[in-house]
Structure formats: structure tokens, C-alpha cells
Design brief:
Elements (H helix, E strand, L loop, with lengths): L2 H34 L10 H14 L16 H13 L4 H26 L2 H13 L1 H6 L9 H17 L4 H18 L8 H10 L1 H11 L4 H31 L2 H16 L1 H8 L5 H22 L4 H21 L16 H18 L1 H30 L14 H12 L6 E5 L2 H10 L6 E5 L51 E7 L3 H12 L2 E8 L8 E8 L1
Length: 558
Amino acid sequence: MNPQTASNLIRWRKWLRPLWLAQLVVLLAVAVFFRLWRLDHVPGVNGDEAWMGVQALRWLDGQGITWRTPTGNPINTFHFLPQALLHAVAPPSITLLRTPVLVSGLLALIVNYLMCRQAFDRSLAALSTLLLALLPVNIAYSRFAWDASQSVLFTLPVIYASLLALRQPQRRIRWLLLAALCQSAAILVHPTNVFVAPLPVLAAGIVFRRPLAASLSAARTEWRCRLIWLTGGLVLVAGLFWWGPWIQLAARRLISPAHYGAFVGNYLDLFSGTTVFRFLTGAQHATGLYRLAAGGVFVFAAWGLWRQGWACIQRRLLLIGGGVSTGAFFLFAGPQAAAAGNERYAICLIAPGALLLSLGLHWWCRQRALVGIGVCLAAGWLLLASFYIHYFRFVQETGGKAQQTFRTARIEPKRAVARYLQTAAQDPPGLIAVTTEWWNYWPLAYFTFGDGAIRVVATAGGDAAFGQTPALPASVPWLEEGRLEQGRLAQGRGQPGLGGQRLPTEAGPRVCFVEFAGSPRARGIANRLVAQGIGVRATHIPAGGQRPILTVLWPAAE
């Protein structure tokens, strides 16, 4: 390269550097803004989110609660306690429900930068933080209060503490203990975070490989050798007994090419955002194109990883440990555990995958700056643009086309129904709102908690009966046991509706039914009431020409 060309290149880099830094700042700012924007109604509040809010309110009120989630997992105290603290100082709201996971998502970025700077360097810390900020799955789950939404925050310290145990051998015991502690906390957050455990286990094996080898060598000539082999055999037999079915299932996946293809596709969708768009908004787009783009970035990063070699022990640990984690997830959880609707189980793979991706891109940014930074900026803008189009704009235009519970409007429909019922319960006082849906019961119970004028009850025939839901009150004459089929709405999903008994109109608290608009249950209830000579007045939410999402059915004597 002649001196003139070198001088021009240096001049161009001086001009480009401020432009690159400005774009990085803007990208990060937009990613944070997307976590905050329309948090109170996009997506619609989920029954699981409200369930946790109700538990917090009951606990603060001195009532009994369940310390296990509806799926049987121990309650996530890192989610429950912040919920209780917030509800102690502020009234129920959707924003309040989602604040703990919002804070967790932002804290994950700070934790990543601080710990990555110790484990590697400042430039990689900035790049990996930016990537974690831009990934659509991280943005979406920072806006959605599920336990798994905190997985990235709790798995990052496990990974970095394992890496730092190798980089700072004088503090290896401290870092390994921190990794073990964080791993335990991560499993409490969500059980699937156990798949990150190979990293601290491998780190401990590397740290203690010499003392362990010396002990095993000394034991060969002593009676301890037999004890070691006997213990190992017993552990192996116990493992085969308890994990036999899982091992058989993993073996079948291991020899099935179709499972490999499905897992690779779902893994790429997880990082490109296709998974969360399909699950939370129902947006349909060119999945193949997104997979091709995501695959291209992964290949680009893989080349960078290859060029860096194996000299860095932290990089070796991340490559091997991340590979083992991903492989174990594939074998034991299966490819469908990373598909749309189940992606919460695969969030444990985000942190190690993002760090490996950042390591590969980092080589390009340092060795081929124009190419590497250009690819990173282009990918960043594309991720944000796709999130805006398939998440915010799609929901604004359609209200969402995913599961009914996620469909929404300018005022979140379940929140709007709660306000409507609270107003209706004032004159005349007293109202019972009946629902068959888990997704409606818990939000309504949450928003009306402590309101003595309204009572939300569930039915035996619907999802709402799964968990702590009260039965229909016997004090209401036409809801007494035996007056409706089994005292409640008809059992089963296929034939919803009221029982064969005619509903009298004796004086008592007014009753209404809250169902998803146009659902089989709503039609079944309305048809049965009409068939028994009871008129039905329907109020649709939202109103004003928008597509109705919820329906309030008011029985009235004809």
C-alpha cells in the first residue's frame, strides 16, 4: 500500500469512527425505547402475568397464596418479591406487572457490559451488550412478565463467573462459588436454565484438573480406587434408572436428521425474531428469508471465530460449554422446545449464543473494520426495523392475530372490561362476573382486587378453574348447586354453555359473563340463555367500530 493510499484510509477511518459510534448509541437508545413504548397494552395482558399480581396482592393482604406456579414449578421469588414491593406502593396496572421484567432486561445489559469487560475487553463488552439489546426475543420478553423473561439476567453471571475463574486463577474459588450460586438462582427463575450448567462444570474441571488427576493417580494403588469405581457405577446405574426414558428419547433424536433440521430452523428463528413475532403478534412474514439472513450472520461470525483460533482459554470454554449446552437442550428438550409458543424454554440459549456470535463479529470489527462494523450496523438496523414492523405497527393496525389473550387495543381490553364492570357495579351495587377462561379470570381478578362491589368467579368447565379460583357463590339463587349443570357452566371445551335447568330471575346480585368475542363459549352461553327464555344483551370491548376482542353478556328476563 502506497503512502497516499494509507493516508486516505486513515483519514476515512477518522471520519467514520464518530459516525459509527453515533449509530451505536442511537441503536442502543432505540432498543431501550422499544422496551418502554406502549408497555401498558402491547401485547394484551396474559393470565399468567395477572396470576403473579394476584398472588402479590393476596400476600400483602394477609391471605393465603400458592408457592408453586400453575405448571408446578416453585414460585420465582426474584419475580414475586419485586411484584409485592411494587404493589405495596402503587395500584394494580399492566405497567406495574411488567416493571420487574423490564428492569431485569435493562439490568442484563449492564451486567453483561461490566462482566464481559472483565472476562474479555471493553470493545467486546460493547458489542455483546448491543447485540443483547437488539435481539427481538430480548426486547419482547422485557415487555412480558413471565418467569423466563429473567433468564438472560440470571444466566449471564453463570457464564461470566465461569470464564473469570479461568482468567483470574488467584480468585478461582470465589468465581466458581459465584457461578454455582447464580446457577441455583437461574434454575429457580426457570428450570430450563439448568442447560447452562455445563459451563461452570467444565470451568471447575479445568481449574481442578491437576489436583483431581493427582488424586486419581494416587488412588490407583490404594483401596480408594475400588471405592471410586463402585461409587461411579452406582451413580451410573441410578442415572440410567431415573433418566432411562429421557436417554431413549435423546438417542432417537440423535439419529433423526429431521430433528436436526427443525432445531436449526427454530434456533435461527429465535435469534431473528420470527419466533416471538409469530407467538405474540401473529405477524406472518417470509420466514425463509429471515432464516437465510440469520444463517448468513452466523456463518459470518463462525468464520471470525475460526480465524481467532484456540489460544484464549475463555474462548475455548465458551465454545465447548456453549456447544454442550445447546446439544443437551436439543437432545433432552427437543427442537419443538425452541419453536414459537415454546420459546420461553429456549431463552437459556440466548446468552451463550449471543456471546459466541459477538466473539465472531468482534474479530471482523478488529481485523476488517469496514466489513465487520458495516455488517453489525446493518444487522442492528434490520432487527429494529423488523421489530417495529412486525410488532408495534402490526399490532396497531390489526390488534394482533396471535392467541386471543395477546390481542389488544389502545386501551387493553381486559383492563377496559374491568373498568366497565366496576362502573356497572356501582348502580345498583353488587355484581358477579363469570368467566370460563384462565386468560380472562386472572386479569379481571387482578384489576378488581379489593373492590367489594364486584366479584369475579370462575367455572368448572373452563381453564379458569385451574388454580386458585373461587366457585360460583351459593348465595346467588340461580347459580346455586344443581341449578346449573354441576352448579357451573357445562364441562368441556367442545360444547360450552349452561346446563339444562331454566334460570329463574329471583332477586339477587346481578350476573354477567365475560368471554372472548365470537368464541364457542360465548356463543354457547348466549344460545342457552335464549333457549331458556332469557334475553341477552352483549357489550363488546373495544367498541367504536374496532374489532371486538371481549364480550360481556348480560342476562335479562324477557
